[in-house]
C-alpha cells in the first residue's frame, strides 16, 4: 500500500527585538523576509533604537488557508499581548488588513493586488485553479524590483516560486479585504513592480497615501533614511497629509545625501 505524504503545515514565527519595557510594535514581514536579512535587520535596529519593542512576524511562504494559517495566529498573538500598533510590509500588509483589531496600521507597499500584465494576467486565473501546493510558479522578482541595497544572498534565501494553492489563497484574501480604516497610513512607491499599485490606490483614500522613492522594500532602497523618518512620524500618529508636506524628507526633495546616515551600500554577493 502506498502512503500519501502529509503536507507540512505552515507556521507563523515571531521574534522579539529591543527592550521589553518599550512600546510594543507588531511588525508583520513580507513574503520571504526574515529578521536575519541585512535590510530587515537594519529596519529592526532602527525601530528598537527609536524606542519600540518589536515583535517581528515571519509568515509562511506556502500556505493555503489564509484565516487559519495566517490571520488567526497573528491576531491571537497581538490580542494576548494587547498590541495596538502594527507596521506591515507586502504580504504582511494583506494579513494586517484582515486582523480586525482596534489598532493603528502603517502599511508599507501592501500586497492588495497582483502585479500581473499581458500574458501573465491571462494565465494567472488558470494557474490558480491547479490543485497543488507544489511551488512551481516563478515569482519573477528581481533584486532591482526590491531595492538597490538588496543582497543577492537575501533574495536567494527566499522562495523563488509560489504554489497555485498559495496564489489562490492570496487572491481570495485580496478580493475580501475589509473596509479601509481612515486612521491608517499607507506608504507606496509608484514604481513598485512587485505589487499592484493601482489596487493600493483603489482601496486607499488619497488623503491616507504617502508616496516614497525606492523599490518594493523601502528598507532596501538607497533613500531609506528619508522614508524611515516619515514612517517614524506615522507610527507616532502623524497623518499622511502632514507627511507628504514634510519638506526635505519628502520623496523627490533635495535633502542631504543618504550616505550621511552612516550606512554603506553593501557589496554584491553574487
TrEMBL record:
Record organism: Haloferax marisrubri
Region (Disordered): 239-270
Ranges of Polar residues composition bias in the record: 261-270
Domain (AB hydrolase-1) ranges: 36-225
Alphabetical list of InterPro entries matching this protein: AB_hydrolase_1, AB_hydrolase_fold
Gene Ontology molecular functions: hydrolase activity
Name by which UniProt lists this protein: Alpha/beta hydrolase
Top-rank lineage group of the source organism: Archaea
Signal peptide: none
A Pfam match: Abhydrolase_6
Lineage per the UniProt record: Archaea, Methanobacteriati, Methanobacteriota, Stenosarchaea group, Halobacteria
Keywords tagged on the record: Hydrolase
Keyword Hydrolase: yes
Amino acid at each position: 500500500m502506498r502512503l500519501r505524504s502529509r503536507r507540512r503545515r505552515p507556521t507563523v514565527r515571531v521574534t522579539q527585538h529591543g527592550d521589553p519595557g518599550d512600546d510594543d510594535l507588531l511588525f508583520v514581514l513580507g513574503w520571504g523576509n526574515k529578521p536575519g536579512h541585512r535590510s530587515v535587520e537594519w529596519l529592526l535596529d532602527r525601530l528598537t533604537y527609536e524606542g519600540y519593542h518589536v515583535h517581528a512576524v515571519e509568515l509562511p511562504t506556502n500556505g493555503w488557508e489564509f484565516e487559519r494559517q495566517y490571520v488567526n495566529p497573528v491576531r491571537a498573538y497581538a490580542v494576548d499581548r494587547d498590541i495596538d500598533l502594527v507596521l506591515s510590509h507586502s504580504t504582511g500588509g494583506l494579513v494586517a488588513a484582515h486582523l480586525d483589531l482596534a489598532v493603528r496600521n502603517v502599511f508599507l507597499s501592501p500586497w492588495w493586488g497582483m502585479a500581473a500584465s499581458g500574458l501573465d494576467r491571462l494565465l494567472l486565473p488558470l494557474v490558480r485553479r491547479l490543485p497543488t501546493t507544489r511551488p512551481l510558479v516563478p515569482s519573477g522578482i528581481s533584486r532591482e524590483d526590491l531595492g538597490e541595497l538588496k543582497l543577492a544572498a537575501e533574495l536567494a534565501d527566499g522562495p523563488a516560486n509560489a504554489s497555485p494553492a498559495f496564489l489562490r489563497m492570496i487572491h481570495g484574501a485580496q478580493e475580501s479585504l475589509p473596509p479601509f480604516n481612515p486612521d491608517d497610513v499607507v506608504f507606496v512607491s509608484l514604481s513598485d513592480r512587485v505589487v499592484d499599485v493601482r489596487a493600493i490606490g483603489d482601496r486607499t483614500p488619497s488623503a491616507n497615501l504617502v508616496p516614497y522613492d525606492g523599490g518594493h522594500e523601502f528598507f532596501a532602497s538607497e533613500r531609506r533614511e528619508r522614508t524611515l523618518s516619515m514612517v517614524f512620524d506615522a507610527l507616532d500618529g502623524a497623518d499622511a497629509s502632514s507627511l507628504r508636506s514634510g519638506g526635505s524628507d519628502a520623496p523627490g526633495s533635495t535633502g542631504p545625501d543618504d550616505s550621511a546616515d552612516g550606512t554603506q551600500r553593501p557589496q554584491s554577493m553574487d
